[in-house]
UniProtKB/TrEMBL annotation:
Catalytic activity, reaction form: L-aspartate + L-glutamine + ATP + H2O = L-asparagine + L-glutamate + AMP + diphosphate + H(+)
PROSITE patterns named among the record's database cross-references: GATASE_TYPE_2 (PS51278)
UniProt source species: Flaviramulus aquimarinus
Protein name: asparagine synthase (glutamine-hydrolyzing)
Glutamine amidotransferase type-2 domain ranges (all copies): 2-218
Keywords carried by this UniProt record: ATP-binding, Glutamine amidotransferase, Nucleotide-binding
UniProt xrefs under NCBIfam families: asn_synth_AEB (TIGR01536)
Length: 631
């Protein structure tokens, strides 16, 4: 696990200058790999190229130093991530006469590419971002994994290409910060994050998952290609009992493959279905008790440690429980939020940082339950297809408008408790008679209509989902399969995986997600939808596959998720800073917001006139980025 950086400039630079630039970029991501670093650089009459990495040693502690070269020194790689099937791939290559000088997975990628070219990328099971410079072809390849677990940013202009694991590295070597990107700005305020291929900056992009850049250094031809063409799966004819056995076997196989490590490993255990299943699978093939880690809150409405305690006791794990308060986050909140390098307001990043920070004292690798909801259909929002269809069938559109108008003041809350009123209000505002309701459901910040109220007209972009509609082929999603596919492309890549990667790597902890296995994803996409969601029972087949190993009805207990009372914190420890972001003169100079509207939104929240937790937190995180990083 590492961080990588690199650039190509079409001019001659000294090796000293190349190395200095790489060291500048590398220092900014020291947290991603504190164990060692490495730099490759080369300059000729046509161009200069450099690649660098910081390494967190997990596999092959002694001989896995990067960059790694082929035997003839003509191909070089820097790599971030883990390849879980590298031993099988290595055995295959050895049988074909290929020799190795290390025991690292990095060399396996390199030798596989040397023998099979870019076709080899689809053989990799893992989380990865890597760049390969092939001197024989005079080409550069930059690649990202299937789900987008590992980040990859790039900047391209007429005379250079820069790429990196984190935005800050790219910005550090540009002559000036790029302008704010209009599409990225709108995506952030709608979704609370910015998914690939966009960022908050003009001309800096995220490489989309399961794609690779091919850059010909002779012709300057630049292209982005899919690693493998995604074919729409056909529903397989398999009985539920057979499918249940398959799911169980696939989960055990995935946990085992993602547990290869030369350093201590544990699991994040929230007590929900996903983390409980992962912890169970790990405990059953380990000969000694596993370490489990959970986090809770002093505010009881957000604390669910009772569930993780049940599982830990059942598994006889070495359980580590950390109870946090608002005070615990005061000193770290700036470090957490600013490390995203662009606006990001998923508040669960705060406890994810804390649990990563505490876990790192005991283990260097943690397995997580991330991806279980997308792979097996576990989100409450997946109910919305059925609910929207039933609601719009019986409630005329005009009546619905009256209900929303009547309900809005009645359903207002003054505190951040996310109870029944909040849920009913969210449901009413998600109903859509045109069939496009899912785009508003995933908009955790603003709907399109509410954003019109707060952003200046010249900054509004009403077509922000067009590229995702094109890439997924889904305009008005209605089925569970379509919901899950959109979440894979947008919320999983742009939110969930970003949150875990940045907060865990900020603590030099590697997180691995057994549910994020292409083999499992492909399999669940061929199952009948009612195997995943039977009636109103989410993740049905996963729970049925493992229910005999848990207490009765445990896997059916409701769980709130990683909620954090940021709405209340904005009125207390964060209040002074928030108030500094609604100074009228500053807002006028900023020239982004409708000044009166945004001030009213914040003041209504601060005075407890109404609870605007999500919108105000969304605004706070943007302003924190803007005034500390951008301005």
């Amino acid at each position: 696990m590492c961080g990588i950086n690199g650039y190509i400039k079409f001019n001659h630079e000294s090796k000293e200058q190349l190395n200095a630039d790489m060291n500048t970029m590398n220092k900014l991501i020291f947290h991603r790999g504190p164990d060692e670093d490495g730099v490759f650089s080369e300059s000729n009459d046509s161009y200069s190229i450099a690649m660098a990495m910081r390494r967190l040693s997990i596999i092959d502690l002694s001989s896995g130093k990067q960059p790694i070269y082929t035997d003839d020194k003509k191909i070089v790689i820097v790599f971030n991530g883990e390849i879980y099937n590298y031993r099988e791939l290595k055995s295959k290559l050895i049988n074909e006469g290929v020799t190795f000088s290390t025991t690292s997975d990095t060399e396996v990628i390199l030798k596989l590419y040397e023998k099979y070219g870019v076709e080899s990328f689809k053989e990799l099971d893992g989380m990865f971002a890597f760049s390969i410079y092939d001197k024989k072809k005079n080409k550069l390849y930059i690649t990202r994994d299937f789900f987008g677990e590992k980040p990859l940013y790039y900047y391209k202009s007429d005379n250079q290409l820069i790429w990196a694991s984190e935005l800050k590295s790219i910005v550090s070597v540009l002559d000036k910060k790029p302008a704010i990107n209009k599409r990225g700005l709108n995506l952030y305020f709608r979704l609370t994050y910015i998914p690939a291929p966009y960022t908050i900056y003009d001309n800096i992009h995220k490489l989309e998952p399961y794609h690779y850049i091919e850059y010909d250094l002779s012709t300057h031809n630049f292209s982005i290609n899919a690693i493998d063409i995604e074919i729409e799966p056909k529903t397989r004819k398999v009985s539920f009992d057979e499918a249940k056995k398959d799911v169980k076997a696939l989960m055990y196989e995935s946990v085992v493959s993602r547990s290869v490590s030369d350093v201590p490993i544990g699991t994040f255990l929230s007590g929900g279905v996903d983390s409980s299943v992962v912890s169970l699978c790990l405990s059953q093939f380990k000969s000694t008790p596993i370490d489990t880690f959970s986090i809770g809150f002093e505010e009881k409405g957000f604390d669910e440690t009772d569930k993780s305690q049940i599982v830990a006791k059942m598994l006889k794990s070495n359980h580590h429980e950390f109870i946090i308060s608002e005070k615990d986050l005061e000193e770290d909140i700036s470090k957490i939020l600013l490390n995203f390098d662009e606006p990001f307001s998923d508040s669960s990043s705060l406890p994810t940082f804390i649990v990563s920070n505490r876990t790192q004292k005991y283990a260097k690798v943690a397995l997580t339950g991330d991806g279980g909801d997308e792979v097996f259909g576990g989100y409450n929002k997946y109910y919305m297809g059925k609910m929207n269809d039933r609601y719009t069938k019986f409630i005329p559109k005009a009546l619905h408008g009256s209900l929303v108008k009547l309900g809005t003041p009645l359903l207002k809350t003054s505190t951040d408790n996310r109870g029944r009123k909040y849920k009913i209000n969210r449901l009413l505002n998600s109903v859509n008679y045109e069939g496009d309701y899912y785009w508003d459901i995933i908009s955790l910040g603003h709907t399109q209509n509410s954003l019109h109220k707060y952003l200046l007209p010249n900054l509004l972009d009403n077509d922000i989902f067009s590229s995702y509609i094109k890439s997924t082929g889904i305009k008005g999603p209605k089925t569970l399969t379509e919901f899950r596919k959109i979440d894979k492309h947008i919320s999983l890549e742009g939110d969930m995986l970003v949150k875990v990667d940045r907060t865990s790597m900020l603590n030099s902890l590697e997180c691995r997600a057994p549910f994020l296995n292409k083999k499992i994803w492909d399999y669940t996409n061929t199952l009948p939808e009612d195997y995943l969601m039977k009636g109103w029972d989410k993740k049905y087949i996963l729970k049925e596959a493992f229910k005999d190993q848990f207490p009765d009805e445990f896997l059916n207990k409701s769980k709130s998720g990683f909620g954090v009372p940021v709405g209340n914190w904005l009125r207390s420890s964060l209040r002074k800073e928030l108030e500094s972001y609604i100074i009228e003169k500053e807002l006028i100079d900023q020239n982004i917001f409708n000044v009166d509207e945004i001030i009213e939104l914040v003041k209504n929240h601060l005075s407890s006139k109404e609870d605007n937790s999500f919108k105000v937190w969304n605004y706070y995180c943007f302003q924190k980025w803007y005034f500390n990083t951008y301005k």
